[in-house]
Design goal:
about 120 residues; mainly alpha; 2 domains; two-stranded antiparallel ribbon; 7 helices; about 5% strand
Length: about 120
Amino acid sequence: MAPSKFAERCPNRGALMDLFNNHMQKYTPPARYVTSAFGKDILCGKKKLLRKAEIKWVEHLPNWKEFSTKRIWGSCKNRSEWAVIKQYFPDFTGDTLPNKQYLVNVLNTLIPNCIMDTI
């Protein structure tokens, strides 16, 4: 079955989350960000997910304005690695921002010390 056909037949986002998290051992954003379109893009190879074993976890994030999601996401868009970074996130519209924990963990894995450069 083609990946796009599978994504269309997938009953709900819970089934996609189960597939990615438990069967494929991939690190996904929270369930509200895993839409059928994002799942289809992952299965077709347009978007990517990191393996859970690869993640360089960031445990504690301070609630300082320097570490705000808006600031970190905005600084990512200005980096030369933006084309690589955006492959790991759903397409956001309007003022929607990614989950802070997912954003920081992905950035810390892809570009070590990226968070420190943001400050």
